[in-house]
Amino acid sequence: MDALSDDEEFDFPLPNDDEQRRIALQIFLDAWDDALAEGVDPDVLANTAIFAAFSDMVETYGEESVAELADGLRDRVRQGEFTLNQTRH
Predict the structure, then answer these.
(1) Is the pTM higher than 0.90?
(2) Of 4, 49, 87, 89, which alpha carbon lies 20 to 30 A from 56's?
(3) Residue 56's Cα: distance from chain center in Å?
(4) Which whole-number Å values give the CA distances from 23 to 37, 42, 48, 62, in the listed order?
(5) Which portions of the chain are predicted below pLDDT 50?
(6) What is the sign of the dihedral through the CA atoms of 52, 55, 57 and 60?
């Protein structure tokens, strides 16, 4: 069987952005569950995930761009964007 060269096209469509996000989230949640099962504290997991995400984004986009993104997170958190089980009264 021949290996694909870098310039050969695939015969199947690549997932769109929404599908990639869904796949990435499922992989991440599975890894999260595995870490919890191994006894890793949820706070340690959360802080590690945030560190990994910010480190990767800083490497890709630079400190200033990531700082601007972080500035906007406060309002998004307060507006419930990251709250999974929202109950509104």
Answers:
(1) no
(2) 4
(3) 11
(4) 21, 22, 20, 26
(5) 1, 89
(6) negative
CA 76 to CA 83: how far, in whole Å? 10
Angle value at C-alpha 38, between 19 and 30, nearest 5 degrees: 10
Q: Which residue from 49, 57, 51 is spatially nearest to 27, judged by alpha carbons?
A: 49
CA–CA gap between residue 71 and residue 74 (Å, rounded): 6
In contact, 57 and 69? CB cutoff 8 Å: yes
Nearest alpha carbon to residue 56 among 65, 39, 3: 65
Q: How far apart are CA 35 and CA 29, in angstroms?
A: 10
The tokens for 29 are 């949640």
Tokens 């890709």 belong to residue: 60
What is the residue type of 51?
F
Residues 6+ apart with CB under 8 A from 58: 66
